[in-house]
Amino acid sequence: MTRRLRVVDRLGTVVLGLVLLGAGLLALDWRYEVVLDLPRAVSTDAADDLVGTSWWPWAFAGGTVVLGLVGLWWLLAHLARPGPSSHRLRGSGGAGSLDADLRSVADGCAKRLEQLAPVVDARGRTTVVRRLPVVEVRARIDPYADPAELTAAAAAVTADVEAAFPDGDVGCRVLLDAPRPARRARRSRVR
Predict the structure, then answer these.
(1) Which of 68, 116, 144, 146 would you call most buried, defined as having the most Cβ atoms within 10 angstroms of its Cβ?
(2) Would you state the torsion angle of the CA atoms of residues 123, 128, 132, 133, taken in this order, to the nearest 10 degrees?
(3) Given this model, what pLDDT does residue 145 score?
(4) What's the number of CA atoms in the CB half-sphere (13 Å) around residue 96?
């Protein structure tokens, strides 16, 4: 998620929260008449007149389309974007370019972690962290895994990526998730 999208999300959340808080306080004040002297009965004549105008269906349809497009933009902006698939190495120049396939590197790192440590479901992907391409390996640990063995395996995978990219152009991150909870077998009752 980009910084601008985070700002829009937070600002939208604050505005929506203030609107809901104001509506709630207004409803409480209408019920108990603490601050304002609001009428007890609500008249909908003005709303009926507005809805009865000839331009209302068009304005309502236009507003609905605009809100739908804003909602679609918001959903698409929150989709996870795949990381870079390749990275141009520093040895590239006028004579040619050298590109490293980062997705293959990520898949290889995931397989290497499964070989070195008691983990399952190891998956590699690429992402960008502070404009630096990062190979990210995520796996679930075995419930009886030795923490020292896990640490050594993660360090070995990170060292492999650092050796492959000695200029520090590509980072590595190993994320180890908790083991999956054991499923309880269902007992069937015989009658």
Answers:
(1) 116
(2) 40
(3) 83
(4) 2
